[in-house]
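Render Inosine 5'-monophosphate dehydrogenase in 3D.
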Amino acid sequence: MKKNESISGIMSTELTTVHDGQPVSQLRQIFEEKPIHHVPVVSGEKLIGIVTSNDFMRVSFGEFGNQDGKGLDSILDHTYKMHDIMNQNPVTIPQTATIRDAARLLGSHSFHALPVVDGEKLVGLVTSTDLINFLAEL
């Protein structure tokens, strides 16, 4: 049955990532320019966290919401570091896992993306949208 297939068939491998030392303003640019909602944070190839668009909005709007892009970038970069807003312990799934494994993890938690790892190396990302698209093709 298809749900026992490897997640490698539905995961995204062309990922936009950031490094812990990058300015937080680069997240604003990523979320503004790309149709993505999850940005893994890496150190080299090692996954060290993940930032969602909701995580970013929580810190960027609130009291700073009236700023233009440049003003907001300046405030963000002086107020936060990447590790301040990223989830430092994201739930991951090994690249040897099945689509069923991913569905169970996503279905039993309140997040919508699973970084796919080979050991500590980030190799992909599976989202709830990937699973919905897979189910729509059955």
